[in-house]
User: Fold this.
Amino acid sequence: MTEKLAILWPEIFLFIATCLVMITGQWPSRAIRAFTPWICAVALFAAFGAAMSSPGSGSAHGGMFPEIVPYAKMLIAAVGMLILLLLSGTVDRELEAEVDAGKPFSSIRSNRGEFYAFFMFSLTGLMLTASADDLIWLFLALELTSLPTYIMVAISTERKKSLEAAVKYFFLGALGAAIFLYGFALIYGATGSTNLSEIATVFATQTANGGISSLGMIGLLIAIIGIAFKIAAVPMHFYTPDVYQGAASPVAAMLAFVPKTAGFLALMFILGTVGWNDGTAGGGHLPVAIEATLWIMAALTMTVGNILALLQTSVKRILAYSSIAHSGYMLVGLIAGPGIIGGPFYQNGLAAVLFYLLTYGIMTVGVFAVLASLEHRNGDEADDMDDIRGLCKSHPVLGWTLVICTLSMLGFPPLLGFLGKVGLFTSGIAAGQYALIVILGINSAIAACYYLRLVAAAYIDDKGKVSSPVYASPFATRKIAGVVSAFFVLFLLVFAQPMINGAYNASKYVPAVAGEVEHNDHTDRHTQSSPAKADEDVALTHKALID
Amino acid sequence: MMTASILSSFTSFVSPAMVSDASGDHGGNASAHLANMVEHVGIGPKWVLLIVFLPLLGFVLNAIYAATSNKTKLPAWTTIALLAASFIATLAMFLSYEGTPYTVHAFDWFNLHYGDKSFVANFSFYVDKLTILWMLFVTGLATLIALYASEYMSHDIGAGYCRFFAAFGLFVFSMSCLVMGDNMLMLYLGWEGVGLCSYLLIGYFYKKPSAVAAAKKAFIVNRIGDLGLALGIYLTFVHFGTIQYAELFANETLHNYINAAAVGDFSGIPGEAQWIALLLMIGAFGKSAQFPLYVWLPDAMEGPTPVSALIHAATMVTAGVYLIARFYPVFLISENALPIVAWIGTITAFLAATIGMAQFDIKRIMAYSTVSQLGYMFAALGMLSTTGAAFHVLTHAFFKALLFLACGAVMHGFAGQLDLRKLSGVAWMKGWGIVGVTMLIGCMNLAGLPYITSGFYSKDMILAEAFITPGYRLIGWILVITAIMTAYYTFRVFFRVFLGEQHAEPGEDFHGDDKSDFHPHAPGWAVNTVLITLATCSMLAISLAYIDKAEHHGWVGSMVAESTASFHSPYAGAVYAAHGGGELHAVAGPVGHAAPGTVLGMDAHKGMILVSGLGAIFGVFVAAYFHGPKGWQGLFVGGRTEAGKCRMDAVAKRMGPIPRMAENKWYVDEFYAMVLVTPLRVIAHVFHWIDKLLLDGLVNLVGFLPRVFAWIIRPSQSGVLQGYAVSMVGGLAILLFVVLVVVMRAGGVA
Assistant:
């Protein structure tokens, strides 16, 4: 139990902060209310520090991904801080204005407490996902990540559109969750265990004896497709543009990063149970059916995302479709897998995905920060292409942030996004996925059409006559988030080596070893690594919770 | 054919050297010295980084000043202080150097390892004596010229002042990266950095179309050279597997090649390896303004004069010399590279001198003189005299900076007047005495008056080398003639502008109504201080020729000997023997190596002192006769009575179109325009229309198709919740069906 605790300190810090902000957010004193985000920031710093000294998760994963925890949680805490900068002023703006004007504070109407608490809940869930070693834990963590975001979408603006988006998101999210939970159930049925490393051992044994059972395979496929909802991949992507557009920009930025990271971590763990060593001796392949599923998903996801983005005039919808496309890119890394054990970074698809999550988080926060920093007279956020026209002249800092981050999303060398994409390309080539790499290349070219449209609008176009001009919003921290992101995008190319090393270490994957015979299942479990027992305890606790 | 004969001379020179070397103390291994040098590369102290990063700090601070609209002289003082600190650090580096090269690591830049190979190019610096030699005059001159510029640029205080000093700091940073980098990528970074700064500073007066055109020309012509450099670096990596100096010069393959080349056997050296030197050479030709890429440098005089002095005379243009000196081992293994370098240098020296003789703009005369002197340096490099090249780089840096700054003072004082026909007797005007005297010292150095100038010693070393190294006698005579021409055009400026009756017409920057109302504006203390310092340095540099004379042929020789530019061992015997050194002479005797080392039947050095010394004096008298004023000021042979009238006018009339052609730079620019620029423009127009009609059409079609597709699938994003849910479940079903039924059936997996 103490071993478990050692890796859970970041979550514990976040949870404590969650409880605190629920109280301080409703406090009648203005100073204490204003202090709420600071509590979140302190907790994120503490979580970052705890993650840095976290011992990895050797025990928790039974050795499948022994090094993933520190990197994943540091990534989450770091990008979480950027998003936190962005969130300021999203809720309670009118209310605070009224309080300034002399009206009494009404805690009923205030959303500040919930908003920050849900944000922290979501990050807690995300970190728990990284620590997950059990299907049930994984499911709970994924839902803890998603559920708060439904509400955050709903309360992020005063408009009806937000409510509509939230309702859609909630129902479709529930459907997605139902699908992957069904998949998890089938996996349990096929293997008799919810512990990931035990499942891996059973699958390895089955593979050695003629292939994974049909029940298990269908379970895996359904689980994968269900989790595709979290990463907004085809065919679960439909909600994305509507929800992004309905949510306030800061929340949309969060939606682009948080569920996607959760989804990719979960997919890594699920895929880890079957491994990338099917077929030839050299390894590097998932089982045929799973690879085919992911292949189709990846190809369709990037293509649909990029093509639909072409027609949009709403920047947020463009970013939503681009978020879909980026998921498609990252799926390539998952298909490529970890490559040869101990191989270099550029052959390692998982390391590429983990690094890409960081780069994507930074650049997407940068772009959304620009949108969040602009508003119309009536308080509506900037969203239309017209709103960013001539931005480099009217608001140089925001304009250049937009240009830099957008070029990075396009993968323009030598920016950060380029560095991220290189890993995906090279790992795909190393894994022999040439067709997919060609599709990835073509999609990068298509993506250039709409990214460059954004760049051109900000940099080349003139302001022209606009019916409703945009103004800089009064929240400096949003601008700071954008500038910090742009700074990272520009300069991490030179100093990215530590992060690449981190991602590389985190991607360390130890495939399960096949047990002796299938009917010896029970003894098998006990002869496994010793921490399995401790895991069982936790798993049982979770089962009890569910019941 | 030409190169072949030179080549044979190179090898014939080398072979007896190998024989004679048996009696030397270097053994038979030609690369032993080099191997010994780079074997013990140590780790240097971290404070060496200050040399590089203090100028960068200057750039950052000036950028901040610009952002805060500073309107004081603060940018200048900041830059001067930081550059001076950088110079002091360089001095410390020089004094603390203990004889073994070392590297200093700033941070990891590219550090890629794959399999058993690697690509490493860190932000690190390599220090040996060649580095120190270059950095001493780069940082020293930069400090002095920044001080000069603080006064010279003062009419632009404000945004322009900040911009100037920001680019100035960035230049010194880039130049330091170029000289100190420990790998070829750092060199390239610096190379492009100085190119950028050169562009920014030439185009400093960006509202002036000619300045913008000159900046573009400099940048574009340099691109041609840079392409060569980039390909050379690439080929180095491909062939030797590393671009780090320490590893490259310790590379066993390279050493085998050098040993083979030392006995004249190039057959075992692959063409790929030989091409490296040729490609690097193209880079050097671009940056150091050698024929045929020299055309940008004279136009670069559109920049402010301090820039011309620092970048386009003293430091940046010597980067090509540095490149070749640094990669001398790589040049030694190429059959053709060094002879080409020697001949190109000679042609450039001669051609530029002929143009320089006919110009009327004093800054342009100095520019062509720079091109010409760089030609000398390249000729020296090609003739196996890295010492001569480096020595001339050093002396030239001082006296040419001095000449430019003196001309700049004139230009500044006379409202932009640079035409030597419109100025006369400046040295006698009130407040201009220091400029006159220092200008005289600079001119004497450039002309190479014997014994009393440092320019004489360095030029003499190169000229003598031409007669020592077999097969280069023709080059030697061409360079002697060029030296006479140099003395002529240098003193032409001095006699006309500084001596004679006082007369001055203001230049185009004069905005008064009445030109007779013009009063020149004498230089202030900053300018005078810098001029005096540089003149002193030029004179003090004479002593360098006598330090370590016996062993290394002067102080610079001792610096070069302990660097990769040294080709010490295999050739040492022959080189020193031919130089007439006492006991070493005996070494050369037996192999019959005395013959090449003579001029007019005398020992090369003694003969050259006579020939070049008398030649220089002759050139001065020619200048005096044609351009000098009457009386003692014209050395009693001059006949000029008025500012604009001299004996040359009549001679020029009789020479027909030649002076005009020379004044128009032999129409080289026009030739380039006709042969290169115009055809490229035509092609560009053709491609423009192809692009517009054909490719745009295709692209639009390609861009159109995804849109059509998008338009078709767009209804799937209806926004209706139930529709989405159905699509999700339907998608799940279809995907499962496809995978389970189609893929798995086809794959035969149950």
User: Anything to note?
Assistant: Chain A touches chain B through 42 residues (CB under 8 Å). Strands of chain A lie at 374-376, 470-472. Residues 154 and 166 of chain A are 5 Å apart (CA to CA). The mean pLDDT of chain A is 85.
